[in-house]
Amino acid sequence: MKERREMKIIEQGKGLWFKVCASIVSLLMGGGGVAPAYAKDTTLADYEKAFKGTIKLDVRDSVADWTPYTPKKAPAGAPNVLIVLYDDTGLAAWSPYGGRINMPTMDKLAANGLTYTQWHTCALSSPTRSTILTGRNHHLNGMASITEGSNGFPGACGRIPEECATIGEILQDNGWSTFWLGKDHNVPVQDIGSGGSKKEWPVHMGFDRFYGFLGGETNQWYPDLVEDNRYIEQPYSPEEGYHLSKDLADRAIAMIRDQKSSNPSKPWFMWFCPGANHAPHQCPQEYIDKYKGKFDDGYGAYRQWVLDRMIAKGIMPKGTQLTPLNPLPKEVANPADYVRPWDSLSADEKKLFSRMAEVFAGFSEYTDAQIGRIIDYLEKSGQLENTVIFYAADNGTSGEGTPNGSVNENKFFNGYPDDLAENMKYLNSLGGPDTYEHFPTGWAAAFSTPFQMFKRYSQYSGGTSDPLVISWPKGIKARGEIRNQYHHSVDIVPTILDICGLEMPKIYRGVQQFPLSGISMRYTFEAAPDAPTKKHRQYYAMLGTRGIWEDGWFASAVHAPLTDKGHFDKDAWQLYHVDADRSESKDLAKEHPEKLDALIKAWFEEADKNLVLPLDDRNTLEILATPRPSEEAPRERYIYYPNTSPVPESVAVSIVGRSYKILADVIITDQDCSGVIFAQGSRFGGHALFIKDKKLHYVYNFLGIKPEQQFVSTEELKPGKYTLGMEFVRTGAGKYHESLGMAKLYINDKVVAEGPMRTQAGAFSLCGDGLCVGYDSADAVSKEYKAPDTFRGGTILGVAVTVEKEQYLDLEAQAQSVLNRD
């Protein structure tokens, strides 16, 4: 009887043991991705079979087996992987491709590896980055556009589905350390707040560490920084030598050094994504000065100059022709993308535009120098030999500076034109903290030579043809050679998996996976420069533009992005034989109608397979204003508290196009009380309520255009309890949809300043520059104080921002009643 009881206890314990083991195995092995035996439908018996030890009542009589519970190790000799991904840089900008911008680090890697002449992207940031993250086409990743342009359709939702496991997850599960630095731009805008879902933040997408920014761009002098899962302030100021590119390189070296200190045999994967060359174009003055006068010949002359160099270097075939600067018919073209002929510019415009190109070039080279520090560290530490390096850019050069360029790119996103006289005031400040610069469309076209158009135009290589250098001293014998095979950003993940001896699992963490959209490029490592490509088809679609490449032919729909014209069924199509006409200069649609029809049919086949429809060419303001569901339902009153992390604009109260009020419950204890009560945005667009010189101030900084709209109380604030606030009553709209109205500044129920005011038609920034209470993070909204200007000499109980229809005094009475209870 005793023996049977012992056996029953043993069997019960064994069953419980295997349940525990099942949980441990699931956690350690990451589901089906690295241990196929532990698939979704695994039974308890399967777990028992996996364990090869012996289990008795007493551990001393049992034999352990660690095999099922030990994380996988990378194969012996597995390489490190480094992807360097710039932003907004076409094929004709950089020195390895014949461009005028010196890139010593990239030159060094090209001389030690391969330079690709027909590598393509999705024409926009978030989509391209998603393909490099997952190896699937951007619509399968839910990234039809940038995350700020998401919509409620399968291919446009702005959320990478579980059916698309990331390269970070696969490498992490198979024994690599994984690091992501710099730009993300694949987190849904609804989730970038501190309290939002972290499911699609980098550390939940297969990366051990993250240091960078989540949105599409950031101020290089005052970035919106995230470390792992939390917002942080920058470690030091621009006056102390801070620049984001430098900071990112410092962090990258530190992460690798820390990893090698504890796990020297473990390979690592790093995705390094600097803010360069996305606007704002900002860098140290010494790098801008390197290019003084280098672009005075203008963007038209640069195109011919650089094409000759590209042909001489073998980047372009002999006989390649330039394409027109403004190729689209007037009835189709987007006026904001027009390129003004250089000869038509005034002397001031030429001077301004040339300086803007100098800043862009300096920004690019400065960042390359910081990347060079990483490469030098790898070389000195003996890691470079077995590190696969991909050095690339994510889309064609950006034309978001409009025909006239801008000292504040946010004007583009607000549909507000630039003014030459205003911009000329900043000629000697370009690239510094006082500007958020973006050059004009002419330079976008020039740095995307010899192709038509630039970023956002997916039907032309001006939007999609990008630089790519691959260096792997241990694994690539060729040195300084060119590869002309046609490839795409979806091919990076298959290449990495091929190099690392891994496969994308069919089931990952219990979810059936979408097949990879790309193919491995590893065959090109030993191929002849002009050997046939093994890729056969690639579709393109972005912001209403579309095209398709198949076996050396390309069909392009004649449509411009962000025009709100629709009628896609009426689009004309062009046909190019890119194997013979690399620049896509000769439309062969009339000569080969059957080929064009076949390619159009192929585009619709790909659209169906990849969740591409519906197409969307709405204008910027419409796209950015698309309602998107959030964990927090929109409301009329928002309460914010002091000293919290900045609240990103995408999840903060929206005052765009509305009347609004700001009310703060404040207890002043010191007669010298001062500092920021409320701030949102930056010097390039924002508003702030603050105390200075014992007086209450409200500033609305309209797109950084001076003078700031200031309202200052006539009376001084003494110690006591107050409701401080302001009210804006919208009475109409201006020419560019900006709101016009009257503003009033209040101390309790008394109006202490008032006057006319205008507010922006769009956001204060594309991303970042969050809402703060009790301080102003990063870049100050107003020149009247220096960030953070932390509130002192009193206590802020809370700040309410309302967009409801009640009048200020009704709300002031409620706020005062709160004060009286304290």
Description of the structure:
With 822 residues, this protein is of the alpha+beta class. Strands 1, 2, 3, 4, 5, 6, 7, 8, 9, 10 and 11 form an 11-stranded mixed sheet that branches. Helix 6 runs parallel beside helix 9 (347-380). The N and C termini lie far apart (73 Å). 54% of the residues are buried.
| Counted beta strands | 28
Question: How many helix segments?
Answer: 17
Multimeric state of these chains? single chain
Tell me the overall shape: globular
Distance between the termini: 73 Å
Biggest beta-sheet profile: 11 strands, mixed
Query: Helix amount, in percent?
Result: 10-25%
Rg, Cα atoms, Å: 29 Å
**Strand composition percent:** 15-25%
Unreliable spans are 1-39
Helical/strand content category: alpha+beta
What is the overall pLDDT average?
A: 92
Short description:
With 822 residues, this protein is of the alpha+beta class. Strands 1, 2, 3, 4, 5, 6, 7, 8, 9, 10 and 11 form an 11-stranded mixed β-sheet that branches. Strands 18-28-19-24-25-26 form a 6-stranded antiparallel β-sheet, covered by helices on one side. It has a 5-stranded antiparallel β-sheet with strand order 23-22-21-20-27, with no helix packed on it.
Fill in the keyword field for this structure.
822 residues, 24% helix, alpha+beta, 17 helices
SSE layout:
Blueprint: H1 2-29, H2 44-50, E1 80-86, H3 104-111, E2 114-120, H4 125-134, H5 167-173, E3 177-183, E4 209-213, E5 225-227, E6 230-232, H6 244-262, E7 268-273, H7 285-289, H8 298-313, H9 347-380, E8 387-393, H10 410-413, H11 420-424, H12 441-446, H13 461-464, E9 465-471, E10 481-483, E11 487-488, H14 492-500, E12 507-508, E13 511-512, E14 537-542, E15 545-550, E16 553-557, E17 573-577, H15 593-609, H16 620-624, E18 637-640, E19 660-668, E20 675-682, E21 685-692, E22 695-701, E23 709-712, E24 720-733, E25 739-747, E26 750-759, E27 772-773, E28 794-802, H17 808-820
Parallel strand pairs: 1-7, 1-8, 2-10, 2-11, 3-4, 3-7
Antiparallel strand pairs: 2-9, 4-5, 5-6, 8-9, 12-13, 14-15, 15-16, 16-17, 18-28, 19-24, 19-28, 20-21, 20-27, 21-22, 22-23, 24-25, 25-26
Helix pairs in contact: 6-9
